[in-house]
Amino acid sequence: MVPVPFIVLYLKKFASFVAGKSQTASKLLDILFKRAKEKAGPVEEFQWLGLMLFVAVPFPGTGAWTGAIIASILDMPFWSAVSSNFCGVVLAGLLVNLLVNLGLKQAIVAGIALFFVSTFMWSVLRNIRKSIIKPSLP
């Protein structure tokens, strides 16, 4: 969590400084920002909740650093970005601890169950969001 506030605050300034100095660095930063933007789908849609859930998923490439990069790219407010990253890191730690303490068979079952629960949760959240944005006509 230590670098997260610095990434959120200074990533764009640092990237524009480095991009101005080197074409190679500019291309690498473009690739990095493009990949982060691709991963930002749910975060763009749900902002704080989306970023927190993205960081909470204990898979490679979904941690606090990537969450901070996405928050910076999406211009999320500072405290919103840092707090959602923090909550996501805590949830990821609790989830990994739970899975480690369950044992291999139970962890596999729990992982499959969590996959289905998260898929169902995202669809429910999307439906709620659609009903709020576009109220049904009488």
Structural shape: globular
Rg (C-alpha, Å)? 17 Å
The tally of domains stands at: 1
Distance between the termini: 48 Å
For the largest beta-sheet, the strand count, sense and barrel status come to: none
Structural class: mainly alpha
- Percentage of residues in DSSP E strands: under 5%
| SS field, number of helical segments | 7
User: What is the strand tally?
Assistant: 0
Helix content: over 70%
Q: Which sequence of SSEs, written as H and E, runs from N to C?
A: HHHHHHH
> Would you tell me the overall average pLDDT?
83
Query: Segments where pLDDT lies below 50 for 5+ residues?
Result: none
Keywords: Membrane, Transmembrane, Transmembrane helix
Transmembrane segments: 48-71, 78-100, 106-125
GO cellular component, one term: chloroplast
Organism: Arabidopsis arenosa
What does this structure look like?
This protein has 138 residues and is an all-alpha fold. It has one domain. The protein is built from 7 helices and no strands. It is globular, with a radius of gyration of 17 Å. The protein starts with a helix and ends in a 5-residue tail after the last helix.
